[in-house]
Design goal:
The chain contains nine helices and no strands. By secondary structure, the protein is mostly helical. About 40% of the residues are buried.
Length: about 260
Amino acid sequence: MERIQVRHALIALALTAFAALGTVALLLVLGPDWSVYAPATCTATRCFCEMPRIGSLILQPADSWSSLGFVFAGFLMMVLARAPARGSAMAPVAAMAFGITAVIVGLGSLLLHATLTLWGQFFDVLGMYLVGCFLLVSALSRWKGIPDRHAIALYVLLCAALVAVLIAAPEARRWLFAVVLIAAIAVELGLARPRRPGARLRFYGAGILVNAIAFGIWNLDQHGLVCTPSSLVQGHAVWHLLGAVATWLTFAYYRSERTVTL
């Protein structure tokens, strides 16, 4: 993975700030009375540890702002996509697409935790599905040598199917995402990896490890085992930040694949 220049990070940071400001502007138009909208399905049990600040524009500030980690990672991918790494087999359009999905994950998560509404939950899960489908289709494409246009069509169809299920049965969102993610990892490690010359497996392995740690923290937070509801230090916020790191490590893995010259 090439060294990230300071200017790349600053551009990504500025874009993240603009995205955050735009999201706040949207929330100002739609809120702050989030009770007028259908609630997220998690409100029937508990929407993580952080106590909602009822009446505030941002109901769960720690869980909301930590979501920007994904946005920053996504914009940094997009900035780097405009300056392709020398010898990398990852096409700029693929790097750009992965970056866009990461940004959607972050902004969707922010909308959910800021509003705890059903429509916020939709955008939160949509981003997760977009990333999961990207990982799965990328693995399938490399394994089977699927042409780019067919891979794009497969990606769109798979995302559409998952969104249809999300609308029809929102309670199935978590296990369905888990199925897609596990399938993507299995296909990548078992079948696609040998067809990625030069790809540094340690990046992918580190991403899986970070995600595993993050999932453990998510469970502690979700089940109230480690929970201080009024604190700005939240396990779910740590899950967001570690998830952003894991996403970046996966990007670094794709980026490290080398082109084969004959």
